[in-house]
Amino acid sequence: MVSSLGAGLALDRSGRIAPSGVALAGLALAASAAGAVTTWLMVKQHEPAPAHGFASPRLGDALRPLRDPAARSALAFIAAWNAAIGISGTFFSVHLLGNLKLGYTLVALLSAGAAVARILSVPLWGRALDRVGARPVLATCTFGLAAAPILWILPTEACPWPIAFDALLSGTLLAGHALASFALPLSLAPRSERPFYLATFSATGGLAYALASAAGGALASALPATFVLWGHPSHGLHLLFVISAVGRLGSGWLALRIREPGARTRRGSPVA
Predict the structure, then answer these.
(1) Which residue ranges form the domains of the chain, and what is each CATH number?
(2) Nearest 5°: phi and psi at 156?
(3) Is there a contact between 250 and 143 (Cβ–Cβ < 8 Å)?
(4) Alpha-carbon 129 to chain mean position
(5) How far apart are alpha carbons 181 and 201 in whole angstroms?
(6) How does pLDDT run across 25-49, given as a tens digit for each residue?
(7) Cα 4 to Cα 111: distance, rounded to the nearest angstrom
(8) Model pTM?
(9) Are 166 and 151 spatial neighbours (Cβ–Cβ below 8 Å)?
């Protein structure tokens, strides 16, 4: 939060005290220095040696998640969710800065607000995760986050306040979503095969996001910058936000179909 606000202030002031390229280079240098510090800290970490040594991995172990029906249902959700996020994810800041003419500091304040919401809500999501499992939490947060892109259609340059509500909504729901997304592969995978499950989930999500992001860029380039819809001025990026909202709703339906052992329905009864 502190570094984000500092970066926003530096970028907003760079037009008056220094070329913006110098400010961006300074931020890149600061990020590299922070990365070096985290690398040094990671080197100092260690984990206990396994009691029975390491088993030699086999190709079949790496393919196990693709043969597991429970894992496949979760992978379908992961792919759909990341595609729904990737189609518009890179354009929210573009919309804020280019279309709504907000400064970098205000963008950083919105990010800080979302971070505060995540910090305050994540213990509550953790308790819910312990009680009902990852799938119900994941489905609830996914359906709730489907409303977030629609909120980005409402603000105008003269009235940008709906974005503040989105920061609180998204921050709160993303806390539960991230926690459940982390717990899901751990609950599905046999302990000895968790690295392969985690790798498969990560690769699936990354590939879906990359392809959707590229498609979103191509679509954004083809759309008109502005147009009039039912007598109201709109931006071309609004269409990407609507597509993202529809994709998130579809992801929520897929989340309900995840076969998580021990998860519970909203009434509290265990499901297979």
Answers:
(1) 1-34 (no CATH), 65-256 (1.20.1250.20)
(2) -125, 170
(3) no
(4) 18
(5) 10
(6) 888 999 999 999 999 999 998 877 7
(7) 8
(8) 0.81
(9) yes
